[in-house]
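Comment thread on ticket #2218

A.B. wrote:
> Attaching the input chain for the structure job we discussed in standup.
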Amino acid sequence: MKESKLIKSVVTAIAVVAFSIPAIASADDGAELKGKTEKVSFSDLNVNKEQGAQQLYRRLQQASKRVCGVEPLKVSGSVRELSQSMRCYRETLDATVAKIDKESLTAIHEG
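C.D. wrote:
> Ran it. Output below, let me know if you need it in another format.
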């Protein structure tokens, strides 16, 4: 039981780091997004079951959108900004799912 909590804590930390790397890499000068991270906790979920994996995936999607500043075109102001934030979102979500490395989560992501 303790090992399971430790693994989830480590994976959560990895997810936070994974969010920051693509966000920083996708910004033109990195100043706007640099250092933006978000902790995604899932110790309350059983990600080995589909329902838990789906809930985690939704949390990762929302966190990726917030970290990358994904806003509708009317809010973002330009197609270029929207394109950059969506690229950041995709890269962040891809990297995070890969780092977590759970078959059920990867299946949802690639689905």
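A.B. wrote:
> Thanks. Noting for the ticket: Helices lie at 2-26, 50-68, 73-76, 79-100, 103-110.
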